[in-house]
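INTERNAL AUDIT FORM
Audit reference: QA-55
Scope: verify that the stored structure record matches its stored sequence.
Auditor: D.O.
Record contents follow.
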Amino acid sequence: MSKRPRQLFVTDMDGTLLGTDSRVSPESAHIISELSRRGALITVATARTPATVEPLLRNTLMNAPAIVMTGASMWDRSGHRFLSPHVMTDELAAYVTRTCLSGGLNPMTYTLNGMMNGIDMMVQGPLTIKEERFIEERSKLQFKKIHRLDKASARPEFYPRTILIFALGEIDRIYAVAEELKHSGRCSVSAYPDIFNRSIGFLEVFAPDVSKAQAVMALKKATGAEQLIVFGDNYNDLPMMRVADIAVAVRNAMEDVCREADEIIGPNSTDSVARYIRDHFSG
């Protein structure tokens, strides 16, 4: 009998593992936890920070570190600590801040705290209604501290230990700033539409060479996995899908994501990712 390959399953969260209510369903949590107890290597690769990853996965056991902030770091869920983070130089953080501001975006700067177990998020206004809602939803999270800076004060060019510069806004403006940053060749850039409102976009800027692709390959090597299976729905999932042994798209994924996937399963509303892992786990 041939030896079955050691598998690593990595899933995006929003629009993929999470249902239409942006939660992990009880059934998905049960399936993934039971498989993890049997030795399955399952984790997430998400644009989210640990501050929102932990509450969403509190009932879901996983054996591998989480990939957070689009691959800028891994997160030890049991030890509550960042692993191998990629931070920007001060010069790069200043350049990205200037470029966002000149493009009409309001950059929000995420920095690592001194204990490496949380995020300090620097916010400066005036803020749009969408930005206010985004911040309010994250204002009481355990692993993120939001600092609202005085609107009258001058914005610093950079913050030390910057790991992410984030902005949200009209999709055309987001894409325009993203193209300028990509053209510079100085940083990693991810720009994609809001899955609930395609007229709004998100911009994420990181240190060079940060991506979900880089992170899943590093995790594959660290775990000794021989087969990498990934799940996604949006444009920022494409890099990891292109390096995976098997790339799986949920049916509600963007057309380009479905086009590049090896397999298309059911939508995120029917526990499709968890059921696929259950049916294909070779342990």
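Auditor finding: record pair retrieved intact. The radius of gyration is 18 Å.
Action required: none
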